[in-house]
Amino acid sequence: MNKLRYSSSSTCLVVLIHITVFLVPNLSYAEGFDSLLELRPQSGSTRIRPRSKRVLFLGEFGAQGDGLRDDTKAFRDTWELACSFSGRTRIVLPAGNTFLIHPIDIAGPCQSKITLQICGTVVAPEDPGAWHGLNPHKWLYFHGVNHLTIEGGGAINGMGQEWWARSCKTNSTNPCKHAPTAITFHRCKYLNVKNFLVVNSQQMHMAFTKCRRVAASNLKVVAPAHSPNTDGIHISASKGVVVKDSIIRTGDDCISIVSNSSHIRISNIICGPGHGISIGSLGKSNSWSQVQHVMVDGAFLSNTKNGLRIKTWQGGSGFASEISFQNVVMENVSNPIIIDQYYCDSRVPCANQTLAVKVENVSFMRIRGTSATEEAIKFECSDHSPCEGLYLEDIQLVSYSGGITRSLCWEAYGFSSGFVDPPACFSCSESCIKQKVLLDPALHPF
Ligand SMILES: *[C@@H]1O[C@H](CO)[C@@H](O)[C@H](O)[C@H]1NC(C)=O
Ligand SMILES: *[C@@H]1O[C@H](CO)[C@@H](O)[C@H](O)[C@H]1NC(C)=O
Ligand SMILES: *[C@@H]1O[C@H](CO)[C@@H](O)[C@H](O)[C@H]1NC(C)=O
Ligand SMILES: *[C@@H]1O[C@H](CO)[C@@H](O)[C@H](O)[C@H]1NC(C)=O
Ligand SMILES: *[C@@H]1O[C@H](CO)[C@@H](O)[C@H](O)[C@H]1NC(C)=O
């Protein structure tokens, strides 16, 4: 019989990261960008006071916490007991311990509102062989869970090195195979993830799929620039998601928003290295997709392959619309502003098709900084379904190396207002929509 310890306090220390991305008018680029970032640990450390009396420590369920012995069963047993209680329950993974957890499905809904307090470290098996016979997409897989909080200042480490070495993107003689997403939340509701580290995932770091009402904040997500497909935060088919005050440095998109997601707000993000903040890819394999009501407000991107991007495949359908990117600072970013309707991430070239995801009503406002390439603004839209309702306001993207910058437009319709450098290259006919996208900035997930 498992021994339970009831405790009214726990000894987990956390350091909160607070990020403020300032947009300074008439910024002098010679001064560098470090002054734009303010990283401030809040009053040293804070002792967490549990709101509930019921606290379960993983060690009480047989976990060793030595990083060598398998703690998966202890974790599952703790979760199942916590899930069966009513009221609030806290599961603690204490600091100073490393818990080796094999691929695990963590199911809800639960009677209780659970807080998973990760103060120590959770590690994945290093050897991809541990997934033999299991779903290669999953490591920590939460599904159907409502009212879950994850916090604690600890770390989740995907130990992805061996997976990256075996990727076909690392070595083209390798077969292309799926690799796990470190933490997936599927069909979740009222989720609050904050204040921990996710590092070296096998593939994507954190994914929300078919979720409603999610708040993610004070996260630090880190993997090497060369690690393949290691998106930071991936949002798919979800509605009502806020991601804020986080640092993301990985080998792929810092944040990607795909398939039928809406009411997404991203703010105060530090991104890079990585591929930037992306909407898409959308429309792969002739699929229909709708991404609407997305606001990116406050980001600092440095040395990323792209800055703010919308990417769609030929042959798809649906919409990417009502999107606003604002208050963004870039440093040496290769494609600072880009809409790419000819996206093709496959070994064989993609043929042009008549169908395309319609890109409409997209605003870029107050975007400044340096571009690593000459084409600082690129709108490469579909021949058959042009981009409409594009809007640029207060843009200053100069060359990182001191050359010139320019805009490139293909089938792009819109207009600009205020200072825009490089100047916009849109066409705008009689029917052109002249408006900026104004979204309600006060999206609170719950
Ligand atoms: C790619 O893998 C093949 C077969 O395993 C190996 O012979 C080759 O040296 C690898 N190439 C690189 C660049 O690592
Ligand atoms: C988006 O939703 C529509 C309608 O529910 C569905 O047909 C389509 O497959 C979804 N697209 C994606 C990419 O999930
Ligand atoms: C700027 O970006 C370019 C292109 O990605 C890269 O080659 C170069 O090393 C970067 N410069 C610095 C100082 O990081
Ligand atoms: C697809 O269309 C674009 C725009 O018209 C053109 O630049 C590109 O060369 C075409 N690609 C192929 C593979 O035909
Ligand atoms: C784009 O904005 C126009 C003008 O407000 C609106 O009529 C149209 O429905 C919008 N497009 C989409 C796809 O929401």
Automatic annotation (TrEMBL):
<dbReference type="GO" id="GO:0004650">
    <property type="term" value="F:polygalacturonase activity"/>
</dbReference>
<keyword id="KW-0677">Repeat</keyword>
<keyword id="KW-0326">Glycosidase</keyword>
<dbReference type="GO" id="GO:0071555">
    <property type="term" value="P:cell wall organization"/>
</dbReference>
<keyword id="KW-0964">Secreted</keyword>
<keyword id="KW-0378">Hydrolase</keyword>
<dbReference type="InterPro" id="IPR011050">
    <property type="entry name" value="Pectin_lyase_fold/virulence"/>
</dbReference>
<dbReference type="InterPro" id="IPR012334">
    <property type="entry name" value="Pectin_lyas_fold"/>
</dbReference>
<comment type="similarity">
    <text>Belongs to the glycosyl hydrolase 28 family.</text>
</comment>
<keyword id="KW-0961">Cell wall biogenesis/degradation</keyword>
<dbReference type="InterPro" id="IPR000743">
    <property type="entry name" value="Glyco_hydro_28"/>
</dbReference>
<protein>
    <recommendedName>
        <fullName>endo-polygalacturonase</fullName>
        <ecNumber>3.2.1.15</ecNumber>
    </recommendedName>
</protein>
<dbReference type="GO" id="GO:0005975">
    <property type="term" value="P:carbohydrate metabolic process"/>
</dbReference>
<dbReference type="Pfam" id="PF00295">
    <property type="entry name" value="Glyco_hydro_28"/>
</dbReference>
<keyword id="KW-0134">Cell wall</keyword>
<keyword id="KW-0732">Signal</keyword>
<feature type="active site">
    <location>
        <position position="275"/>
    </location>
</feature>
